[in-house]
Amino acid sequence: MQNAELDETDCAILREMQADGRLANVELARRIGLSPPAALVRLKRLEESGHIRHFTAVVDREKTGYDLLCFIHINLRMHQVSQVEKFRRAVRRMPEVLECHHITGEHDYLLKVALRNRRDLERFLLERITPIPGVARIHTSLVLTEIKSTTALPLEGK
Question: Is-above-0.90 flag for pTM?
Answer without folding.
Answer: no
